[in-house]
Amino acid sequence: MEAAADLRDTALLTLKFKFNPRLGIDNPVLSLAEDQSDPWNLHRPRFCLLSKEEEKSFGFHLQQQLGKADHVVCRVDPGTSAQRQGLREGDRILAVNNILVAHEDYAVVVRYIRASGPRVLLTVLAQNVHDVARAQRESDAFLCPTLVSGVRPRLCHVVKDEGGFGFSVTHGARGPFWLVLSAGGAAERAGVPPGARLLEVNGVSVEKLTYNQLNRKLCQSGDRVTLLVAGPEVEEQCHQLGMPLAAPLAEGWALPAKPRCLNIEKGPQGFGFLLREEKGLDGRLGQFLWEVDPGLPADKAGMKAGDRLVAVAGESVDGLGHEETVSRIRAQGSCVSLIVVDPEADRFFSMVRLSPLLFLENTEIAAPPLAATKDLPVEEDTVEPSGLAGSRQCFLYPGPGGGYGFRLCYVASGPCLFISQVTPGGSAARAGLQMGDKILEVNGYPVGGDIDLDRLQELAEAEPPLCLKLAARNPQGLEAWFSSESGEDWTLASELL
Fold first, then answer.
1. Is the pLDDT of residue 68 over 70?
2. What's the pLDDT band for 72 if we cut at 50, 70, 90?
3. Parallel, antiparallel, or unpaired for β 154-159 and 251-253?
4. Which residue pairs, CB below 8 angstroms and at least 24 apart, start in 289-293?
5. pLDDT score at 129
6. pLDDT at 474 (0 to 100)
7. Local structure of 216: helix, strand or coil
8. How far is CA 457 from CA 403, 416, 437, in A?
9. What single string gives the DSSP state of each residue in 113-176?
């Protein structure tokens, strides 16, 4: 069913979701099973190349422990790509697509994974191995070696000329295959390095193809073909690291299309475009831009009718419903930042099964502002704890992944319950929650003294909206709170990825 939102006015759309989060403290205890006599085996990371199937998730849930530079896999769903590729509960994610994330904010790690599109390469360590390595104070470079700058597989778009594609294939009866280039030919001009190993043709792996099957696939490509290749140096480095030659690691060379970033400032007549949910060229539901009014801000920023919306304020909208996407756009206020692809680019990135966000270059993306919340009057005889300001009330609806977009921390020495993290663009951010806010009430239930976690879980699992009464903490108090070593980290919902 077609849905549309006219973004030429300021009407606000909302959508309610059934919500059933899991609430608990993540404190797994594992024993050390590896042979400590071999430090390389002890610290060697694992590489998990995950793929989404039928537009579902990768099949794992991610959370972060407050005060620790850990991004923890807290659940792996059975029968999913994550389980088949060996991702396990308790694994620590060290890198996403060769980008070190050990010291990145949790929300940044989630953004990297979602921006990877249908495929992502995770570098992980088991919890017990990670804990021993950290105890030995090993550097991140040793824990998680990465490919050096410029040594990456290449995604090369080759256009046939009078000399053909400009390469031949060395082969046996079946792959792997290597390319022999013609000097000055089309493949060389498209960036294919000498002696490159051929990994994919038009987004399809050739590792298990026979030579005849590969030849037919090349012939079916017509006068242009997109090759995923790895030069000898890349192949050698990946072999030494045990890293797969994965498509999400690729650099783009001579690609026929790229994503575009549109920074649009609202005018007196609005932004001047319509957002509609419909099926794209690949049959997937997506958010498309139509009815771009000539001369209005969207048109001046370069928006074209038929563009597919890829991201809002740098956050991927892949898998989001129409109402949630509209809410994210409007949460930015009068200045919005949208990343889009035209139909040609949409068709290309769908074919190679990679997100256009992996090939975004030199783009300025505006960060979304937080929405205002309703301030509540503070009675004169109310005495707030040290460092707390007046209270306010927020109403939250869960997003399509089932989460409200924030994390909680319980500090027993307080005792107090406070916001430890807010996901940019999520329901909590739009409602105005901020890191350090103290929870006073949840759905009318006072939170103070000895917290009844079972009762709190029942409240969190109730039908939306989630009503929170909050008190802000000043920066000095917040800093003291976070420096406390007592307390346990827990969450209303982990991120499903």
1. no
2. confident
3. parallel
4. 289/340, 290/4, 291/6, 293/8, 293/269
5. 73
6. 47
7. helix
8. 14, 16, 19
9. HHHTTTEEEEEEE-HHHHHHHHHTT--HHHHS--PPTT-S-EEEEEE-BTTBTSEEEE--SBS-
Cβ neighbourhood burial of 239 (10 Å; 0-12, 13-18, 19+): exposed
Smallest CA-to-CA distance from 469 within 414, 419, 400 is with 419
Share in percent of the chain as helix, strand, coil (round to 5):
20, 30, 50
**Cα distance from N-terminal residue to C-terminal residue, the chain:** 26
Contact status, residue 73 vs residue 57, Cβ threshold 8 Å: no
**Amino acid at site 27:** N
Residues 362-386, mean pLDDT to the nearest whole number: 35
pLDDT per residue as tens digits for the range 183-225: 999 999 999 999 999 999 999 999 889 988 999 999 998 999 9
One DSSP character per residue, 307-330 reads: PEEEEETTEE-TT--HHHHHHHHH
Q: Are 466 and 443 in contact (CB under 8 A)?
A: yes
Among 244-253, 352-361, 389-398, the minimum mean pLDDT is found in 389-398
Which residue's entry shows tokens 């690609």?
255
d(Cα 441, Cα 456) in Å, to the nearest integer?
10
- 465 upstream amide cis, omega within 30 of 0: yes
- Number of Cβ within 10 Å of residue 19's Cβ equals 21
CB atoms closer than 10 angstroms to residue 220 = 10
The SS3 of residue 4 is: strand
Largest CA distance in the chain: 86
Burial class (CB in 10 A: 0-12, 13-18, 19+), 62: buried
pLDDT at residue number 9: 40
Alpha carbon distances (Å) from 365 to 261, 289, 312, 425, 432: 7, 19, 9, 13, 21
CA distance linking residue 53 with residue 469, whole number of Å: 40
Q: Which two tokens stand for residue 266?
A: 């609202």
pTM of the prediction?
Answer: 0.67
CA distance 105 to 465: 27
Angle (CA) 423 475 448, round 5°: 75
